Amino acid sequence: MKKIPGLIILIAITFSAVAQIETRVLPIIPLPRKVKYSSDDFVLTNKTIIVLTNDKFKPEVDYLNNYINTNYGFQLPITSVLPTDGNYIFVTQPDFEAGFMENYDLSINQNQILFVAEGNAGLFYGIETLIQLMSIEKTPEIKISCVQINDAPRYQWRGMHLDCCRHFFTKDEVKKYIDYLAMYKFNVFHWHLTDDQGWRIEVKKYPLLTKIGSQRKETIIGKPAWDKNGKPSTNDKYDGISYGGFYTQEDIKEIVTYAQVRHITVVPEIEMPGHSLAALASYPQYSCSGGHFETFTKWGVADDVFCAGNDSTFLFIQNVLTEVMELFPGKYIHIGGDECLKDRWKVCPKCQKRMKDEKLNDENELQSYFITRIEKFVNSKGKQIIGWDEILEGGLAPNAALMSWRGTEGGISAAKQKHLVVMTPGKPCYFDHYQSKDKSKEPLAIGGFNPLDSVYAYDPTPKNLSEEEGKYIMGAQGNVWTEYITDFSKVQYMSMPRMAALSEVLWTPKEKKNYKEFIARLKLHSKLLDKMGVNYAKQFLLK
Ligand code: ACM
Ligand code: ZN
Q1: 338 lines ligand 1 (CB under 6 A)
Q2: For residues 330 and 373, what is the distance between their CA atoms, to the nearest angstrom?
Q3: Which ligand has an atom closest to residue 339 CA?
Q4: Cα 437 to chain center, whole Å?
Q5: Residue 7 belongs to what H/E stretch?
Q6: 320 Cα–ligand 1 center, Å
Q7: Angle (CA) 527 50 9, round 5°
Q8: Cβ-count burial 128-151 (b if 16+ within 10 Å, e if not)
Q9: Nearest CA owner, ligand 1 atom 2
Q10: 296 close to ligand 1 (CB < 6 Angstrom)
Q11: Per-residue pLDDT tens for 381-413?
Q12: Of 3.20.20.80, 3.30.565.10, 3.40.50.620, 3.60.120.10, which CATH number belongs to 157-542?
């Protein structure tokens, strides 16, 4: 790093020169760890200069410049020396390394915006804060409130999920979704890519997965019904319209790179052993019954699954995962594991033989055998598996991380067994649930009720874990399942602003959270959502 003489003094005096005030409502979400307020503003124009002392930060500075160019129509020149007059943005590193790569300090006075960050991620988060502070109006000048911020995240896993199987969202829509994650300092995008109703990722070795599995002949209208014996009703209505879509490997690479620029890791989910009917419609030989299947056309769980007694099933999944792992550079591969109906295994001679050979007591242990075998393969490629909490049943695979969705008990049990955990309990982390009690005023949702305040109040670390056990809680995640979310505008409606509330759960120190104050900031911030054209749920505006 090129040292600029007097840098420490510069940092020290930067905020003493502004008129400090007690508080000011600013549109920053999530709320930073520490904020000092001022009544002054910095005025950013096309004459403002960016001073960059270390080229490693160039990608983040380019990101800021692109944002300014796209939204305000000009770019800022970049130099490595402090200007003698005019205002400037100064990007630098702290004088000593502490290893806090997501932390940043941001000090804004009338003449200078100063970023101090050790890691690129830290600078990126500082830039996202700056963007939220920029005045919305498209004028040659951008007003920015003077503040002094010291910021750091509370949790390491700040996730949002999107189901692209029940309904398909285009590459550009997925990128928009990633933009929302970046705005709120999320760092994980959990991409649900395979399910009973659609296989959405190109696998070169198995072209039928996309030729057959990415398509379904029609889609159920509304909710599926069951008769009084619990059997699927024959009265269900279907739309008669073929539906499909998938991402090529080139699309995937583009999205992964897009996310990387925004310091977001994409975790792909490849479902097994259940939720796999689209794969089995393509390659029925890997099912238990071997039967003829069609990609599922209704919501719910299909009753044929990957055969755990057939070695060629494992070879197929391993070949799929080999291509998947080459596309996604992150550490985790999500292998699903939820809602596997094991009735087929009970009557499958191959599965029953496997249980006998491996001395497995029941089908839960067979599921554990299945997941552990896949884990060994994934680990051999230097990656880790993460799965839904059903993978606890029959015994957790030795290195698996767990996503607790059926409440928090699974997460608590895994943490006590010293396994890493992401909390995503249906209440309040499922954003496919209603957000207002008056359902007549809401678009059709799967059920449940997770209003904004319940999301905001959530604390991912259960009270009944010891301090040591609590360290296994990596963070939390919001899930957007799309059975009833037919287009991207509805994805926006269901996820926003609950995503904003969750970001504060994951980033802001617990003792700083205050719902009333959050709503006041959200009201200001909603102008940015309006500018971005986001169809967010507006109930909070009435508060
Ligand atoms: C799930 O919602 N089935 C993980
Ligand atoms: Zn079987």
Answers
A1: yes
A2: 21
A3: 1
A4: 26
A5: helix 7-14
A6: 22
A7: 105
A8: bbbbbbbbeeeeeebebbbbbbeb
A9: 405
A10: no
A11: 999 999 999 999 999 999 999 999 999 999 999
A12: 3.20.20.80
Residues in the chain: 543
Amino acid 430 reads: Y
- Using a 6 Å cutoff on CB, does residue 300 contact ligand 1? no
User: Which ligand has its closest atom nearest to the C-alpha of 483?
Assistant: 1
523 alpha carbon to ligand 1 midpoint, in Å? 32
Q: Two tokens at 357?
A: 């050979």
Q: Would you tell me which CATH number, out of the four given (1.10.940.10, 3.40.50.300, 3.30.379.10, 1.10.268.10), belongs to the domain 7-151?
A: 3.30.379.10
Enzyme catalytic residues: 195, 275, 339
Residues with CB under 5 A from ligand 2 (ion): 288, 307, 309, 348, 350-351
From the number of C-beta atoms within 10 Å of its C-beta (0-12, 13-18, 19+), residue 88 rates as buried
Looking from the CA of residue 426, the nearest atom of ligand 1 is 2
- Residue located nearest, by CA, to atom 1 of ligand 1: 338
Q: What pLDDT, in 10s, does the model give residues 454-465?
A: 999 999 999 999
Give the whole-angstrom CA distance, residue 507 versus residue 515. Answer: 15
Give me ligand 2 centre to Cα 296, in Å: 20
Domain boundaries, the chain: 7-151, 157-542
Strand partners, 116: 92, 105
In angstroms, what is the span from residue 283 Cα to ligand 1's centroid?
Answer: 24
C-alpha dihedral over 188, 419, 415, 270, to 10 degrees? 50
Q: What is the pLDDT of residues 164-220, one digit of tens each?
A: 999 999 999 999 999 999 999 999 999 999 999 999 999 999 999 999 999 999 999
